[in-house]
Design brief:
alpha+beta; 6-stranded antiparallel beta sheet; two-stranded antiparallel sheet; 4 helices; 10 strands
């Protein structure tokens, strides 16, 4: 007879995959099937452990939903972008991507990048930039700006003529406002989803 798993790694991985597909946490009965546990008591015990460790929590109507740690991911190690290092054992460090990128959720917006004017800053078309609206901008910051009623992502620059916007691509000229330059927020992070290399 199957027993309740000794640790949470395997059932938590299965539950995360399920949530990624369906965007819900299933019922106790469905969880038992997902985890291949025969016995509602064992399934309930596993759920309680996940709630205790903040992977799950109860929402309205006692419906289960992801807890604060549900989206944590293990950080295996650092990796060099230069010469290769010998492989190391995995660390115990965990990371929630949302918590890592976002300090103030109520003041943070995501924007998808269009165009190549920031490519030399490592910002490519299709990337998502994380913009914090209340952060005080300084010269050199990458900012979301409203310049003459047009929204753009550029580097904030300044000279004797005042503040202006600088692209990170020599093909684009600097943007100097004709009427007004309003900084809407400062970029505090970026992420992209890479496409796997096609197999031959």
């Amino acid at each position: 007879m199957p027993r309740s798993p000794a640790n949470l790694d395997v059932p938590l991985a299965a539950l995360r995959d399920y949530f990624a597909r369906h965007q819900i946490i299933p019922s106790i009965t469905e969880l038992g099937r997902l985890w291949q546990i025969s016995g509602r008591a064992w399934t309930h015990q596993l759920v309680q452990r996940m709630k205790h460790d903040a992977f799950l929590e109860e929402g309205p109507g006692r419906r289960l939903r992801p807890g604060p740690r549900f989206f944590e991911r293990g950080v295996a190690d650092t990796v060099r972008a230069g010469y290769a290092d010998p492989a190391h054992d995995a660390t115990d460090l965990t990371l929630s991507i949302d918590r890592y990128l976002i300090d103030k959720p109520s003041e943070t917006l995501l924007f998808e990048v269009r165009g190549d004017s920031m490519i030399d800053a490592g910002i490519h078309e299709g990337d998502f930039v994380v913009i914090e609206r209340t952060r005080t901008p300084t010269v050199g910051d990458t900012v979301l700006a409203l310049v003459d009623n047009a929204l753009t992502l550029k580097v904030l620059a300044e000279d004797a003529g005042g503040r202006f916007l600088q692209a990170a691509n020599p093909a684009y000229e600097a943007i100097r406002p004709t009427f007004a330059l309003e900084i809407q927020g400062v970029m505090v992070g970026l992420f992209r989803r890479t496409k796997p290399t096609a197999k031959s």
